[in-house]
């Protein structure tokens, strides 16, 4: 039985993927940062563990646990992450660092440690959860955009360095999917961004503070559109280097390839 380590399984795509793969022949090591979420996953019947991806020690212990049980590791899905809304000028450097600690440096540490194991065993799959916002940028998403753009650069380099091996790196570019992501992003905005007195105060109130109400828009899809591509990345003899999920991702990626930057900016500023 092939196994997979999945980070960020508390809700949404991570939670749904862990359940789907567990029911379809994979030994899933589902992880979350909070004990309550781990307990919930265990109650669901999953093999779940506490893991904070910002802790190299936690990650090392997790891999030790897997190798003790299975002696190898087939795949890793780096799914842990969150969104930090707010205009770039309203985001402190410390808040930006916190965004990178989870979204980028945590992903890198898991990848770094996984690669040591996969190099020795001679095979493996690493699936990195990026975003449509790793392809294009939107206003008030600067911290998140930057963290996802960084993932793109890391993965593009990794593929070149792993060429000719049996270790494959796939990047998942997900558009709007129903989950707790928007709700949690709103909480991070309220925690870290000073609303009163900001030049964007009016727009924040209109566009960000009610963002969790947009789950019913036609562009937002269920997590099965992502799981389908994750499954392909796990099973294909030669998985794709990049998977686009949702019409929004396909559309915006196409516009970026085709349009001059100035014209694209005029479109993106209206989203």
Sum up the structure in keywords.
single chain; 271 residues; Rossmann fold
What does this structure look like?
It is a single chain. The chain has helices at 12-23, 35-43, 56-70, 93-121, 142-161, 181-192, 201-207, 224-235, 247-258, 261-268, and strands at 3-6, 27-32, 47-50, 75-78, 124-129, 167-174, 242-245. It has a single domain (3-268), classed as 3-Layer(aba) Sandwich (Rossmann fold), CATH 3.40.50. α1 links the parallel β1 (3-6) and β2 (27-32). The protein has 271 residues and is an alpha/beta fold. The longest helix has 29 residues, at 93-121. It has a seven-stranded parallel β-sheet with strand order 3-2-1-4-5-6-7, with helices on both faces.
Give the secondary structure arrangement, pairings included.
Layout (H helix, E strand, L loop, with lengths): L2 E4 L5 H12 L3 E6 L2 H9 L3 E4 L5 H15 L4 E4 L14 H29 L2 E6 L12 H20 L5 E8 L6 H12 L8 H7 L16 H12 L6 E4 L1 H12 L2 H8 L3
Parallel strand pairs: 1-2, 1-4, 2-3, 4-5, 5-6, 6-7
Helix pairs in contact: 1-8, 3-4, 4-5
Q: Tell the overall outline.
A: globular
Strand adjacency order, main sheet: 3-2-1-4-5-6-7
Q: CATH superfamily, called what?
A: NAD(P)-binding Rossmann-like Domain
Overall mean confidence score, pLDDT = 95
Strand content: 5-15%
> How many strand units?
7
Instruction: Give the distance, in angstroms, between the N- and C-terminal Cα atoms.
Output: 44 Å
Q: Tell me the radius of gyration.
A: 18 Å
Largest sheet: 7 strands, parallel
How helical, in percent, are the residues?
Answer: 40-55%
Class from helix and strand fractions: alpha/beta
How many structural domains can be distinguished in the coordinates? 1
Instruction: Using the coordinates above, name the CATH class.
Output: Alpha Beta
Any guess at the CATH architecture? 3-Layer(aba) Sandwich
User: What is CATH's topology name?
Assistant: Rossmann fold
Question: Could you list the spans in which at least 5 consecutive residues all have pLDDT below 50?
Answer: none
DSSP helical segment count = 10
Helix-strand string: EHEHEHEHEHEHHHEHH
């Amino acid at each position: 039985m092939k196994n997979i380590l999945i980070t960020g399984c508390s809700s949404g795509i991570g939670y749904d993927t862990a359940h789907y793969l567990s029911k379809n022949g994979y030994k899933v090591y589902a992880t979350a940062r909070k004990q309550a979420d781990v307990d919930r996953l265990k109650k669901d019947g999953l093999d779940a563990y506490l893991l904070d991806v910002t802790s190299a020690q936690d990650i090392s212990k997790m891999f030790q646990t897997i190798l003790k049980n299975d002696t190898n590791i087939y795949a890793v899905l780096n799914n842990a992450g969150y969104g930090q809304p707010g205009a770039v000028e309203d985001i402190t450097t410390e808040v930006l660092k916190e965004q990178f600690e989870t979204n980028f440096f945590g992903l890198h540490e898991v990848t770094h440690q996984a690669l040591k194991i996969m190099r020795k065993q001679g095979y493996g799959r690493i699936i990195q959860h990026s975003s449509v916002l790793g392809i294009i940028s939107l206003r008030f998403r600067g911290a998140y955009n930057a963290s996802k753009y960084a993932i793109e650069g890391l993965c593009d380099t990794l593929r070149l360095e792993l060429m000719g091996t049996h270790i494959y790196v796939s990047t998942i570019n997900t558009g709007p999917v129903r989950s707790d992501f928007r709700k949690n992003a709103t909480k991070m905005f309220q925690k870290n961004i000073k609303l009163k007195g900001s030049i964007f105060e009016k727009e924040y109130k209109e566009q960000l503070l009610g963002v969790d109400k947009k789950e019913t828009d036609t562009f937002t899809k269920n997590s099965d559109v992502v799981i389908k591509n994750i499954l392909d990345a796990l099973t294909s003899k030669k998985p794709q280097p990049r998977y686009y999920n949702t019409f929004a991702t396909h559309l915006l990626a196409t516009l970026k390839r085709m349009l001059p930057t100035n014209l694209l900016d005029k479109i993106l500023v209206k989203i």
